[in-house]
Amino acid sequence: xxxxxxxxxxxxxxxxxxxxxxxxAFCRTIKDVVAQVDERLTEEQKVQMNGIxxxxxxxxxxxxxxxxxxxxxxxxxxDIHPAERPxxxxxxxxxxDVMAVSAKIIMETxxxxxxxxxxxxxxxxxxxxxxxxxxxxxxxxxxxxxxxVKAAVDVPVSVKIRAGWDNPKQCLEFSKILEQxxxxxxxxxxxxxxxxxAGASDWDLIKEMKAGxxxxxxxxxxxxxxxxxxxxxxxxxxxxxxxARGALGNPWIFSQIKEILAGLEPTPTTMQxxxxxxxxxxxxxxxLYGEGGIKTFRKHLVWYLRGIPGIKPFKIKLHTSDSKxxxxxxxxxILDADLEGLSSRDATxxxxxxxxxxxx
Length: 360
Hints:
With 360 residues, the chain is α/β, with parallel strands linked by helices. The chain has 2 domains: 12-261, Aldolase class I (TIM Barrel), CATH 3.20.20.70; 271-336, Non-ribosomal Peptide Synthetase Peptidyl Carrier Protein, Chain A, CATH 1.10.1200.
């Protein structure tokens, strides 16, 4: 599939790149869950949908410096399973030339459908070296970076930014600079770098930024349920959403969004379905990292079990699991307890339309 942000059916529904989380195993899991909705649609409904609601995944960021230095571990992080496509690979760095070369290497090696430039990450280990959100303080450097990456690849180049470094209005002019440099799409997380993940994402600011550019804009921040997706789209007038923490342990946010777009009632996530998907995700994770990868899967278990009444007594076994068998035993214990399985992030939860602060 050739990706064209301007022509893709709206609203655009996408998974945000998140370090150590949105790897190939998680992206494949999301595509699997959404495929179940496709099986329920009639041929007429599929034609009417015309691809609307099919999630585009943005893979976790990789270092441009590491790619150019020939770090095989980093380059392998950009490998793509066919089931993940269309896929956008995010890169970060502070040197426009290195960014351009890294983008070209990734394209020649794995050919993602798009390249995304990280200008929004607020963590110190990135911003102290003028990576991530620090680029918002250097508009000329940011502009040069977009131009050089665009010249190096033949796929769309998008940019993820924040509201600003410490001034929430900074994105209004910065987005115009990125558009003039050739960016094909901009995602804005409507918090400043200084805010981090505190406070609320300013959806009205996204609307103001969207009105000032002609390229597509994705809204990001505080979209934790499928219902909030549509509330966000209405408030921001954005072309789509980039869902981050709302998707962690909750791939059903994408299937429920697609159901709503298709005119269907969202399917509640039962405990049986939750366990089934956790097992499938675990299989993909082991396929990617080996049996030793169980320990790195624990962080996903934390998210999968979030917001479920009565789950606390079962967490210790799962959060200390070191084998597939132990994970399966812990999940069976949960099934035997006959818990409902409906989390606070499910579309059918009474509070699904309420914006709540989600700790990182």
